[in-house]
């Protein structure tokens, strides 16, 4: 992707402190659904109330009915891997097409996760300012009566509140189109209040969020396809047979025209971008073509070239040169993504140099099994002859200790790796900044892979870009 920009930096981090108020502890009791109006998911359940519950009511309190939301021309994107990158390509391609035609197009984009919540809400690719985020967020808070809530009032959770703030921001900004990434799942997701999106899309489906979505591709695909809407065109990358069959079944049930996209149909156009992003970009091209065809418009080759070249989404297959080393940053945080990150590292890094792995993952074990993640990454690196000489495990994110593991868990990570790959030197640090002081490891020419968490990637990028030489 293109030049590094698009990460809002703030010393005060007031937006994060404001948003933290809406975090809730993870419920211990499983409930498939707390509302009889919601369908029952096959072989999976939600803990507590499904995130979609309450969203329409809150939007109506803000003055936004279905007609207003539908008028935003929403492109809704679900999947396990590549959602954010696909959204970024759609954004860049739409704006490249508009520039060629001399059209003033304002594109809103909502993606997650990010440490700083204003980074989740973008207009024409740029994150909104912290000041604007706080202004819009506090407006939502006041209109919902949350600044001084009555006893018993149901408060939105963290992601629900960010999504409400995002759509309030887009409506106030009078954007022409919104690209919306699902948090996770689809059927019960907080973003699934959109009744008539213009297009829906599914990126690669893999095993992730198993506690909520189920432990098979078929069950997970059921959730992802929950964003399908009757007669609304849907696009998907090619999937494993179990996932593809379930998507086809759900499309038929919902009367949805579903199209599967092959990356190799755009091989000549996509050769300039990382191999790992070509499938996401091919999907984005078809999404944009479908979007433009509504008004008999078309996406031309110059639009694709310009859109691909100008697209940038932080922390996805990003390479930074800093302190005499090369840092390879990818926020892969599930088994499917980590396998791709390992292959990318093999393809772009100097295998003859000192190889360093910096890893963190803060997911609850009910969502992701850290041992399986480490095994997947370690075996992939080993099979590619790219095993790390040094491995550094990070315990927490500096500016948000919500993303942290205990010292005992950190020891478990380190011991697990040392037992499986004893040739690696294993170290533990509290925070990313401490890595930069490890001169015996971070030496000139080192090839450093930073992965396991988008939050880890965001913090690392912030530090590295401040110190780029």
TrEMBL record:
| Reactions that this protein is recorded to catalyse | (6S)-5,6,7,8-tetrahydrofolyl-(gamma-L-Glu)(n) + L-glutamate + ATP = (6S)-5,6,7,8-tetrahydrofolyl-(gamma-L-Glu)(n+1) + ADP + phosphate + H(+)
Pathway involvement of the protein, from the record? Cofactor biosynthesis; tetrahydrofolylpolyglutamate biosynthesis
Arranged from A to Z, the UniProt key words for this protein are: ATP-binding, Ligase, Magnesium, Metal-binding, Nucleotide-binding, One-carbon metabolism
NCBIfam families of this UniProt entry?
folC
Give TM regions.
Answer: none
InterPro entries the record matches: Folylpolyglutamate_synth, Mur-like_cat_sf, Mur_ligase_C, Mur_ligase_C_dom_sf, Mur_ligase_cen
Q: Which residues form the Mur ligase C-terminal domain?
A: 315-453
The segment(s) forming the Mur ligase central domain are 167-276
- EC assignment: 6.3.2.17
Q: Which residues form a coiled coil?
A: none
Q: What's the family? A: Belongs to the folylpolyglutamate synthase family.
* The protein, known as: tetrahydrofolate synthase
